[in-house]
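Budget justification aside, the reviewers requested a transparent look at the raw inputs and outputs of the sequence design task funded under Objective 1. We therefore reproduce one unedited record. The lines immediately below are the structure tokens for a 279-residue chain.
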């Protein structure tokens, strides 16, 4: 693998070229639908395969990218992620991989109390098995990342299902206490039936401690956190990681809670993290 001599310069060029990439291919993300069954509703998601996928015959790592609240699996932010990863896969800065973009609607990526939707089940019980059965995947090399509420979901799924994911990367995540969750989301606590117990069950705060031993078995630092405007809402979570002696990489960025700024400012870190995690 050849790494760019100046990762910051490469990141800037990547952002600059994104518009031309988009004009050549209106969307790098294919829309896929898993039909409803007796076990689950219709599952929609986006998929991007690497440039060599059809010819190589090899197995590829998989990245699951979770969008933010009120986002969409093929929205502008997801397209930016797809363009960024494609650029650096072509330049061999990172290993080629399959990228999956689940659809979380307005959810927090856990099973909602009223079962509408069951986002955790959709991803863990149905989407991941579907991807592994229908595409050439390296099942021991699965990463998850997310923006905002999607980063909350990424941390939650990584910490609760830590045997399934090799590493996690989150971008300005509101990992908050119950009190902050109520204040921050207003009417949103209905998602967890206004229950502090149920909220904690959906929070990475609880699962990082529960699955500490499994997480510590991972080869390298498996947790990367980029925090911007929501940095104050990370502190309890960071304290838990420190108390449990779980290694992590944390960086604060001078950005508002705005995807383009956070994503571009954390680009170098993401490239280094992915180049190590995808090996």
């Amino acid at each position: 693998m050849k790494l760019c001599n100046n990762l910051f310069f490469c990141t800037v060029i990547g952002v600059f070229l994104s518009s031309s990439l988009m004009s050549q291919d209106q969307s790098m993300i294919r829309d896929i639908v898993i039909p409803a069954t007796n076990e689950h509703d219709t599952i929609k998601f986006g998929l991007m395969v690497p440039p060599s996928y059809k010819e190589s015959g090899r197995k590829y790592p998989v990245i699951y990218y979770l969008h933010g609240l009120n986002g969409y699996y093929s929205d502008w932010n997801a397209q930016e992620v797809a363009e960024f990863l494609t650029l650096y896969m072509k330049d061999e800065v990172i290993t080629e991989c399959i990228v999956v973009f689940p659809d979380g609607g307005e959810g927090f990526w856990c099973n909602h109390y009223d079962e509408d939707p069951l986002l955790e089940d959709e991803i863990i019980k149905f989407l991941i098995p579907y991807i592994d059965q229908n595409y050439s995947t390296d099942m021991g090399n699965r990463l998850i990342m997310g923006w905002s509420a999607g980063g909350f979901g990424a941390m939650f799924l990584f910490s609760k299902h830590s045997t399934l994911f090799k590493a996690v990367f989150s971008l300005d995540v509101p990992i908050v206490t119950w009190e902050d969750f109520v204040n921050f989301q207003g009417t949103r606590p209905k998602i967890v039936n206004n229950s502090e117990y149920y909220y904690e069950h959906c929070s990475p705060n609880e699962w990082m401690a529960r699955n500490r031993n499994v997480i510590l078995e991972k080869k390298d630092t498996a947790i990367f956190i980029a925090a911007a405007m929501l940095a104050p809402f990370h502190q309890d979570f960071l304290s838990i990681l420190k108390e449990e002696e779980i290694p992590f990489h944390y960086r604060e960025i001078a950005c508002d809670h705005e995807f383009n700024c956070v994503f571009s400012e954390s680009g170098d870190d993401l490239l280094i993290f992915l180049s190590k995690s995808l090996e």
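Strands lie at 30-34, 43-48, 60-66, 98-102, 137-147, 167-171, 223-227, 249-252. The chain has twelve helices and eight strands. Computational costs for records of this kind are itemized in the attached budget.
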